[in-house]
Write a structure and sequence with these properties.
This protein is 26% helix and 23% strand. The protein is α/β, with parallel strands linked by helices.
Amino acid sequence: MTYSVAVAGASGYAGGELLRLLAGHPEFEIRTVTGHSSAGRPLSESQPHLRSLAHLVLQPTLPEVLDGHDVVFFALPHGASGELTARLGNVRLAIDCGADHRLTDAADWAAFYGGEHHGAWAYGVPELIVAERAADGAPVWTRQREYLAGATRIAAPGCNASTVALSLAPGIAAGVIEPRDIVSVLAVGPSGAGKAAKTHLLGAELMGSANPYAVGGTHRHIPEIRQALRGAGAVTEPSLSFTPVLVPMSRGILATSTARLAPGVTAQQVRSAWEDAYTAEPFVQLLPEGVFPRTADTLGANTCLMGVAIDEAAGRVVVAAALDNLAKGTAGAAIQSANIALGIPETTGLSVNGVAP
């Protein structure tokens, strides 16, 4: 079966990556692309690398333009998609790559984003461990993909948030790390900030430099990470110090997260927690012991590569994870989730192979 697809915000980085991946998907047919200031212009002006889609013209981002498609992907700035999605009347599956439908707690939305809270949709990180409770109160572990099957509305994750959540959820679920005093420091590429012109993202400002931003617990992905770790079975409210650092690479995230080793836990138990979590996962891969990921090896791929170690002197577990913020971090996660929702094999249209050099 072929599904008709529209991509809102097609002129931006996330929209462009969605289109690149969708163009090679055998079950999706891209029929409509929309933009804001670029409406009426050929798609090739904003996405000249997408040669197979050069015939498309950007239309205005309006409900009447998007309605009637089988699948609509939203790649819009935070706060822009909520009102639009509420006005769709005839769309089988809508997937928001912005933040508008990620957070379950309206207070978190008010504190970190502000404006109207549009409610949470199914969270688009299929591999994320989720803790449920059996009738006797015992924990039962499942995956977020169980909540995506048959979904009609999906919130794709924040790229930083999913990297950290996937890094730590196995340890939380297995009880080998403590959910308090978690520290995550991320090296991130500027494409995650979008395509709008900003002085601090100019090449002359970025080259030869690295600088932290959203320091001191202000980054908007923090409540999303806490929400995911609570869902993975954290017995106490997760305590997280989160600091992203802008580095001069266009794509990529390298997240180094550390957490306290739970009392009495052995090195083998730590290793087993991550092996058990991801051995069967095609897109989240634990590297051999002593090997740690590079962002270069994930570029263009729908993979999150991960390495785990124990800092014995500090009594902490160290997890290093790398992914492409536009692929597995955003567009790839959205398409992977769409596959699951529609009953298409999960890996369809997605590759584990990166681009090198």
